[in-house]
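Q&A FORM
Asked by: J.P.
Topic: structure of DUF922 domain-containing protein

PROVIDED:
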Amino acid sequence: MKNLLIIITLLLLGSTSNEESVTWNERTKLTWADFKAPPSLESNAVAVTASGITFGYAVKTSGERIVDFSTTVEAHFYPNKSWYIKEKGNGHILAHEQLHFDITELYARQFRAQIIKLIVNQNVKEQMSRLHAKINEAVSETQKLYDEQTNHSMNTAMQEEWEKTIQIELKKFEDYKSQ
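REPLIED BY: S.T.
REPLY: Here is the structure written out as tokens.
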């Protein structure tokens, strides 16, 4: 019986594996020191959070047949692609940016929950790739909706609603949180 191990990592932002990143952790919140990129002079934003989901998997084969698989899914923040304007950055805006990262973690949890339901078969690699593409699309749409509805944190009532909603959703997927 011959076993073959294949590892593939797909990154939401197309980042290289040696790029600095912060893995989401419920005990550690972002600080302004994490935002290391120079501010964009062409943007009206006060801050930008670059985050994404890394996804890797390994398949175990016997001959030509896939007999098992394992995965890794993580939510990352990319300091060298994230920035803020020092004179305008405050706690409220930092909380808005943290929620962008929390939304990324929520979708990483949802992705893990979907992967666990997959049954080992010859199409498992394609199924995981399709799930990854759907999750990336969903997280992107949610991030845009979050900024639209909160007016980039300016609508404080809606900001509070989003914070509550995301915390509730994170709790629903507690079993799938980043370790």
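FOLLOW-UP: Helices lie at 91-116, 124-150, 156-172.
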